[in-house]
Amino acid sequence: MVEISAYRWQMTGVNQPMVREEFTAKAGDGEVVVAVAGCGVCHTDLGYLYDGVRTNHALPLTLGHEISGRVVATGAGAQAWAGRAVIIPAVLPCGECDSCKRGRPNICRKQKMPGNDIQGGFASHIVVPARGLCEVDEDRLKSAGLSLADVSVVADAVTTPYQAVVRAGVSTGSVAIVIGVGGVGGYSAQIAKAFGATVIAVDVDAAKLAAIGEQCASLTLNAREHDAKSLKAAINAFCKANGLPLSEWTIFECSGTAAGQTTAFGLLTFGATLCVVGFTMDRVEVRLSNLMAFDARALGNWGCPPELYPAALDLVLDRRINLAAFVEQHPLSEINRVFADVHAHKLTRRAILVPGQ
User: Fold this and answer.
1) Which one of 26, 64, 250, 251 has the minimum C-beta count within 10 Å?
2) DSSP line for 68-104
3) What was the pLDDT predicted at 357?
């Protein structure tokens, strides 16, 4: 069994600086060791470190679940993965339980999420199950002008909204309203557009609205300039003026804020689908009977089944999703500074931490 000298940054407590730790990486049966190319900083990671969201694995724990890299060691049964460039799914279902066999891998109770159930990707190497890995075609990657580190964010920021778009049934002629267009929301808007929807973007940040307007949004609305009634009226007016449906909107709540969730629920209309993609610990007060009155539905979105990853990655490699414009790389050694900057909203792009820089 190959043993690799490695290091990782460990969370030891809420609001405490992460600490570098040396460890030995080795693959067990059905496992691989991946040399990390990059690991994206997600809103969920901030929740663990700053807000006290509880991890399933006891502290100390290495965070990070948006991971790409290269397989450098394999255990029994996983030898075929040796040397391959891969994206590690943010949620790895077991594939064997009743939920998995019935096509519900998202609720697999044996699932493993890096940075939550097992040690995560803010490290030089990570040990993960080989099942579900997504191979990256490096020739297509190069043609797309991307690095292997860049596509780390496919493992949540792209695939989670991709699953939401697929499950909601977005297609040509759909109206997709995205609440919160930084990070996950920005990709949600691009994916909905790729599926044929007319995209309406809502945010409180004028710069983010301008950026997504250049990419894919046909209408951008600053929530600071509207109350709930005028926001819905503006969307209705736009749809009427452009011959778009006034019912069956798909609303993607990606802000992960109480205000965003309240706004999203307030936009329900007849036959609407509300997709909850963002996460917050805050509570919101809504009138659930609106779901009944509008014959609407609400869908939660936890991760993305590994089998959907290749199609989501294809959108990136075919340049139907602009990834490069929304990410920036930082040295992994500066993890505490980068986390603080992301938490303070000082970065406008999704940060990717890269070992060895």
Assistant:
1) 26
2) EEEEEEE-TT-GGGTT-EEEE-SSB--SSSHHHHTT-
3) 60
Q: Spell out the residues 6+ positions from residue 60 whose beta carbon is closer than 8 angstroms to its own.
A: 10, 11, 12, 19, 21
Gap between the Cα atoms of 96 and 108, Å rounded: 9
* Residues 6 or more apart in contact with residue 211 via CB below 8 angstroms: 181, 186, 325, 326, 348
Helix (H) or strand (E) segment spanning residue 8: strand 4-10
Backbone angles phi, psi at 245, to 5 degrees: -65, 145
Q: Would the pLDDT of 148 be above 90?
A: yes
* Cβ atoms within 10 Å, residue 16: 13
Average pLDDT value for residue range 193-207: 97
Kindly give, in sequence order, each residue whose CB lies less than 8 Å from that of residue 332, ignoring residues fewer than 6 positions away: 9, 39, 122, 123, 124, 353, 354, 355, 356, 357
pLDDT attached to residue 2: 87
pTM attached to this predicted model: 0.94
Whether the link from the prior residue into 93 is cis, omega within 30° of 0, is no
Query: How far is the C-alpha of 200 from the C-alpha of 190, rounded, in Å?
Result: 11
Q: Taking 90 as the threshold, does the pLDDT of residue 348 lie above it?
A: no
Phi first, then psi: what are they for 18, rounded to 5°? -75, 150
Residues of 98-113 as b/e, b for ≥16 C-beta within 10 angstroms? ebbeeeebbebeebbb
pLDDT digits (tens, 9 = 90+) for 36-70: 999 999 999 999 999 999 999 999 999 999 999 99
pLDDT of residue 255 exceeding 80: yes
Per the document, the length of the chain is 357
Q: Which residue has the higher pLDDT, 51 or 182?
A: 51
The tokens of 116 are what?
């939550």
Tokens of 67: 């991971």
Query: And the tokens for 16?
Result: 């405490």
Residue found under tokens 């991709």: 162
Q: Which residues contact 7 (CB under 8 A, 6 or more apart)?
A: 20, 21, 22, 23, 123, 124
